[in-house]
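debug: dumping io for the single-chain case to check the tokenizer round-trip. Nothing else runs in this session.
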Amino acid sequence: MNFQTLGELAKLAEERGIGIGSLMLEEQSAESGRPKELEFAKMADYYEVMKDAVRRGLTDNTTSPSGLTGLDAQRVKSYSESDEPCLGGAASEAMAYALAVSEVNASMGRIIATPTAGSCGIIPGVFISCQERFGWDDQKMVYGLFTAGAIGYVIANNSFVSGAEGGCQAEVGSAIGMAAAALTELRGGTPAQVVHAVGLALKNTLGLICDPVGGLVEIPCIVRNGFGAVTALAAADMALAGVRSVIPSDEVIQVMLEVGSAMPEKHRETAGGGLAQTPTGRQIMNDLKRSK
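debug: decoded output
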């Protein structure tokens, strides 16, 4: 890739006079040696999987094998359709869709890790709800996925996207930043605004620990995906309104690396701390062990 930081990414897009999604497609094709058409078709296939996961999460029985989670997306969707949700309809829909994909993951369904399975609901939740809302076609959404991929590439190579390495800030935080950036570009934002969206999103999740109850990617992972989709919408709106990340986004990524590296091991996907070690969390873990 001809960029390693978000600053370099935005500068390159501006110099070439194209969006970050188009730039990432060119860079991916050059790196892989495969035609752009082939790379685009591959990403389009991924988007179909995301759409199917949303559909199944809203219609199928998503009760997980542990029995701990499932069907919350359908509860949120039903509530938002029958009452006046506090968030408003658009944000509630994004939240429901994000929960749907995350519940499909927990129930052993097919998802796309974006960037991880633990954060798989955020990008589909934002993308598919906004596609329906604004009437965008699939081609536009696939370019959006390349935008998200460019952001994920920078984060992964300068910090981390794994909860085991950097806590949930690395998984859910990165996914929120990727979704916010892509949505900003999809709504007509400049490369500079796209980059600001990343910093705005990541600053709101710094220090978030990874504390899965029973060691399963269910509690609190699924609800964090729902909240994450809403945060991505907010970060995109701020960036599009002209709000800047006063601390440059590349520096925010470095802070995420610093915070994650200093995070105790028990707060990095070991189920050794946080919610996993509350009295209820320990009881759930004991019950799961006995059921095996």
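debug: round-trip ok. The mean pLDDT is 97.
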